[in-house]
Structure formats: C-alpha cells, structure tokens
Design brief:
0% strand, mainly alpha
Length: 115
C-alpha cells in the first residue's frame, strides 16, 4: 500500500469513528430525553399518589365520624323507644285506673239501686 492509500484508509476509518461517535451522542441525547420525561412522569405520579393518600385519610376520617354518628343515633333511637314504652305503660296504667274507677262507680250505683 502506498502512503496515499494508507492516508485514505485512515481517513475512512476516522469518518466511520466520527459517525459512530455521532450516533452514540444521539443515543445519549435520546436517553437523556427519555430519562427526563420519565423523571417528570414519575414526579407527577408521586404527587398524584400523595393526593390519593390524603384523600384516603380524609375518607377514613369521614367514615369514623359517620360511624360515631350512627352509634349516637342508634343510642338516641333506643332511648326514644324506652321513653315510648314508658309512655305507653303510663297511658295503659291511666286507662286501667279509669276503668277500675268507672267499674267501681258502676258497682256502687248498681248496689245502691238494688238496696
């Protein structure tokens, strides 16, 4: 090989190397872009997960409050039923007393008429 052929072969090899370096630079640039997009997406998803956790905490707190209210309402209903039962017993007692008094008066009336 002559000197010129060696120089041409060396130049071709350098061109191939330069092209490989450019391809490598493009791959690195694309990798950086993908990494940046992935980081941005991951940050957004992390923030979304944080909001979801906060909402779940809020929902859990609301459920606890609702359960407390249901228990309190249940107690009030039970208390109201007891009061209603007592009122019914009082009404039946008053009715029984009135019936006894009426029957006593009726017996007295009949016995005074018979004698």
């Amino acid at each position: 090989m002559s000197n010129q052929e060696l120089i041409n072969a060396g130049m071709k090899q350098m061109d191939k190397t330069d092209q490989a370096i450019e391809r490598s630079k493009q791959v690195v640039h694309q990798t950086i872009e993908v990494g940046t997009q992935t980081a941005t997406t991951l940050k957004g998803q992390t923030e979304q997960m944080g909001r979801i956790v906060n909402e779940l905490d809020s929902i859990q707190f609301s459920i606890k409050k609702a359960l407390q209210l249901v228990k309190e309402i249940g107690r009030q209903v039970a208390t109201d039923k007891c009061i209603m039962l007592l009122l019914v017993l009082i009404v039946y007692g008053v009715i029984a007393i009135i019936v006894v008094k009426v029957l006593s008066s009726f017996d007295l009336l009949i016995s005074s008429i018979c004698h």
